[in-house]
């Protein structure tokens, strides 16, 4: 391979039974011994804070807990928590939960690693100049799909930097036992869309493909049970690991059209960004497959498995991917049982909004045009699938 590529993944993953019990050792390896643990009221009601506390056993570490992260953290809360962190002498952050908890922890890490003014000046893309304090993410089932990515949101501020990614992600089955089904569906579909789009937007990056392919291989078995609400412990661990792998790939790839349009649709319609991305994905793939000689034949292997990959003629593999994605989406919608709108019309997107959405959204896919966006939005609005 002679094509240039870059990939940065600072995340260590500890996954499996009693993974939490390694936390004292892992924090010591990061020169941290007094973590502030953040969660929300849902995490407190589920007893997740107590499970984390017990995992420290007789380590002798002094722990701090804050269990009041709201659904929409704001700047005042972050500043209060930063003052608490400094006054009590904490030296690391452990975030237990999903979307809002992870957003709050990432942005709090900016505040406690520098000065209060950094919260305003570091918003945007790649504006965090130095390393942040040790940060551990302990995800629970469901979420936004962005929990371990390079992105964080606070109000109308968006932060994007690989320095925001956790140093360690702990996937422990005890933390995944409960969760909101809609949240689980949204997070799983975000991971699915981000992983598939990575094959289109970063085709020359073998490490992006490795992480995205790993996520899709896990989703091949766990996605539908997760969406039906029948997933077992093994499946919940698979979904959580898939979210981490997908976030690593997504954080190293240009933003794809399904991601950008899905986020835009979610801001104006009654649908999660993950579900919107899922509805758009087959049409996006149909438009990009084969464009500019693009070969996505390797995507068939993690999507369909070795038997189907081997049984498909080499010259047909790229061509069959969009139709396969369309059938997978049909299976997802059937499994969701009304938890995902069947199309963007059912999601409440006014058809007259489509030209504005198509014209005002820009993805990292260079050959993508506003006409492409309009076409896939129309197809998703009508519920048309790639054939």
End-to-end separation in angstroms reads 34 Å
Rg, alpha carbons: 21 Å
Biggest sheet descriptor: 6 strands, parallel
Number of helices: 16
Q: What share of the residues does DSSP label as strand, in percent?
A: 5-15%
Structural class designation? alpha/beta
Helix content: 40-55%
Give start-end ranges of low-pLDDT stretches: none
Written as H for each helix and E for each strand, in order along the chain, the element string is: EHEHHEHEHHEEEEEHHHHHHHHHH
Overall pLDDT, averaged? 94
**Morphology:** globular
Strands of the widest sheet, in order across it, are: 1-9-6-4-2-3
- Number-wise, the strands total 9
Describe this structure in words.
This protein has 387 residues and is α/β, with parallel strands linked by helices. 50% of the residues lie in helices and 9% in strands. It has helices spanning 23-29, 41-45, 48-55, 75-87, 99-113, 118-121, 181-201, 206-228, 233-250, 257-268, 273-288, 300-304, 306-311, 317-336, 354-360, 370-382; strands at 12-15, 35-38, 64-66, 92-97, 124-125, 135-139, 151-154, 157-160, 168-171. Strand 7 and strand 8 (157-160) form a beta hairpin.
Question: Descriptors for this entry?
Answer:
alpha/beta, 387 residues, three-stranded mixed beta sheet, single chain, six-stranded parallel beta sheet, 50% helix
Describe the SSE topology.
Elements: E1 12-15, H1 23-29, E2 35-38, H2 41-45, H3 48-55, E3 64-66, H4 75-87, E4 92-97, H5 99-113, H6 118-121, E5 124-125, E6 135-139, E7 151-154, E8 157-160, E9 168-171, H7 181-201, H8 206-228, H9 233-250, H10 257-268, H11 273-288, H12 300-304, H13 306-311, H14 317-336, H15 354-360, H16 370-382
Parallel strand pairs: 1-9, 2-3, 2-4, 4-6, 5-8, 6-9
Antiparallel strand pairs: 7-8
């Amino acid at each position: 391979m002679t094509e240039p590529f870059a990939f940065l993944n600072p995340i260590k993953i500890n996954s499996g039974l009693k993974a939490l019990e390694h936390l004292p050792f892992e924090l010591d390896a990061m020169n941290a011994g007094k973590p502030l643990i953040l969660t929300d009221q849902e995490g407190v009601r589920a007893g997740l804070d107590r499970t984390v506390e017990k995992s420290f056993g007789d380590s002798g570490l002094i722990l701090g807990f804050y269990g009041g992260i709201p659904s929409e953290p704001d700047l005042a809360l972050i500043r209060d928590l930063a003052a608490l962190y400094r006054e009590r002498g904490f030296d690391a952050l452990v975030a237990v939960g999903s979307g809002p908890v992870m957003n709050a922890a990432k942005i709090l890490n900016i505040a406690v690693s520098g000065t209060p003014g950094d919260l305003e000046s570091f918003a945007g893309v790649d504006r965090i100049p130095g390393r942040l304090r040790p940060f551990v993410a302990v995800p629970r089932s469901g979420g936004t799909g962005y929990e371990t990515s390079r992105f964080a949101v606070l109000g109308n501020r968006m932060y994007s930097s690989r320095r925001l990614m956790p140093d360690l992600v702990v996937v422990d089955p005890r933390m995944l036992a409960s969760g909101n089904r809609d949240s689980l569906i949204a997070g799983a579909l975000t991971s699915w869309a981000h992983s598939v789009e990575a094959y289109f937007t970063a085709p020359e990056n073998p490490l992006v493909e490795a992480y995205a392919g790993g996520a899709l291989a896990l989703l091949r078995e766990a996605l539908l049970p997760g969406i039906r609400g029948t997933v077992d412990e093994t499946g919940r661990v698979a979904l959580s690991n898939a979210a981490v792998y997908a976030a690593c790939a997504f954080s190293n790839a240009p933003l794809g059209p399904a991601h950008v349009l899905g986020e835009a649709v979610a801001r104006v319609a009654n649908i999660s960004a993950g579900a919107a991305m899922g509805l758009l994905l087959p049409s996006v793939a149909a438009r990009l497959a084969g464009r500019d000689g693009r070969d996505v034949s390797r995507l068939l292997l993690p999507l369909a498995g070795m038997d189907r990959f081997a049984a498909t003629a080499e010259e047909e593999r790229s061509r069959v991917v969009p139709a396969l994605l369309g059938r997978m989406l049909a299976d997802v919608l059937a499994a969701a049982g009304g938890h995902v709108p069947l199309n963007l019309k059912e999601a409440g997107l006014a058809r007259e909004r489509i030209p504005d959405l198509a014209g005002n959204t820009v993805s990292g896919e260079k050959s993508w045009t506003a006409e492409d966006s309009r076409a896939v939005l129309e197809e998703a609005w009508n519920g048309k699938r790639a054939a």
